[in-house]
Structure formats: structure tokens, C-alpha cells
């Protein structure tokens, strides 16, 4: 590691709060499997995700399987589905869920708060790693090296990557990590879901998600390069602060990452009226 200092937190005891904040896993399983058995348009994608996860668990077992959880909308959907599957497979008790969070530089405090809340609600055995600034460009690989050293028995990681994500176009449901990386099987259960599918699922079950999405953010990263999506900018009253519609109101999923990179200029941004947005 070249002597680099990492802030690493692992275990779940420090993330537990009160017992009544834990999700009802049995109810989650009942609801998710009922939707999968229905004629709802999202059912085929949900069944695909369930099958991929169940087959991965058959291969690796829960004790050797982890889930990558950074608090984003995609991995929040994945965690909810995974919780349903674990509850169905072990209806009397779902033990701590192995999970890993490798933070980006300067994460949003609201996102960190949500991750803590989710760790409690889903009983996550959450390993956290925050690489130093000089390792930011290679943070994921270095973080996984530490994770592999701490938890060598983990052989598979569930990931909420979708086809439209960077580097997602060529992935399948199951891929090994690249040469030079710690060896894991990457499991991509929701690779074929699109932006609208994610929000349909979250809203259908009222799944808790990070509050930043209600402030116009549609894709979350570092505070250095993540802004509300200009496609969700509303026409506000004169001299008032800009207002943004929530992420689930974005109609064109191709614009999902328009709030990433350099700060957008509001003058060139597409706008919707506050009145119209509130009626959608």
C-alpha cells in the first residue's frame, strides 16, 4: 500500500441505534416476491434480479457474499431486493449482511447520514474505507485490497451497476474483477434496469432513500463534482434561490448524469415550471 493511511471502519455495532428502526424483513420478502409473481411491467426485471442473486448465493453462500453499498439509489434498490431474498431463505433470522462502502473524496454529509441509517435498518456488517486524496483515482481498487485482506473469505460482491453507467455497457450479470485487482466475482443483478425502473421500484415500496434525490440530484458522487441536475431546474420567483424538482421526476434517463462534472450553468439549463412539476 506504499505506507498510505486509510480511515477504515468495520463492524456493525457502532452503527446500531434502536431496534424499532430495523426493517421488517419478512414483510419486505412478502412484498417483493408478490410483485415478482404479478403482471406488473417491472416484474420481469425483478425476477431476473432475484434469479441472479439466488444463483450467486447458491455458488458462494451468504457468508462469502457481500454487497457494495454507497447510499445511491441503485444500490438501495439492490439492497432491498437482497434483503427480501435473505429473508425468504432464512425466514426466522437474517444475520448481519456483509457489505462494503469505499467512499469517494469529500462525500456529502447527507449521504453519509443515510448510509449510517441504512446500516442500522438493514443490519449491515458494514466495512468502510476512505482512501487518502492521493489515492482518489484508484480508490476502489485500493479499498478492495484492504477489504480482501480483512475479509479474505468474501468471494463475491453484489453491485448495483446498470447498463448506462460508466463501464457498464459490456458487463454481464456475473464478471470476475479485472487482472491486477483483488479477485472477486462481481454480481450485477440490476444491470438491465433503467433510470425509470429504479424510481418505479423505490416509489412502489416507499423504500427510504437519500434525501439529496429530493433536492434535484440524480447521480451522486463527490461534493467537488456533483450538483443538482439542470434538467430539473424549476422556474422560481424573481431573486429567489434556484429550485429543483426531485430526481424521480426526470423524464429522460439519458440526462441522469447531467449534474456530474463541472458545475452546470443555469442560464443554459432546461427548465420546468414549479407549478407543472408539482402536479406530476
TrEMBL record:
It comes from the Eukaryota. Pathway: Cofactor biosynthesis; FAD biosynthesis; FAD from FMN: step 1/1. One of its GO terms (biological process) is FAD biosynthetic process. The lineage of its organism: Eukaryota, Fungi, Dikarya, Basidiomycota, Agaricomycotina. It comes from Cylindrobasidium torrendii FP15055 ss-10. GO terms for molecular function: ATP binding; FMN adenylyltransferase activity; hydrolase activity. Residues 259-280 are annotated as: Disordered. Keywords: ATP-binding, FAD, Flavoprotein, FMN, Hydrolase, Nucleotide-binding, Nucleotidyltransferase, Transferase. SUPFAM superfamilies: Adenine nucleotide alpha hydrolases-like. This is FAD synthase. PANTHER family: FAD SYNTHASE, FAD SYNTHETASE-RELATED FMN ADENYLYLTRANSFERASE. InterPro entries: PAPS_reduct_dom, Rossmann-like_a/b/a_fold. Residues 66-227 form the Phosphoadenosine phosphosulphate reductase domain.
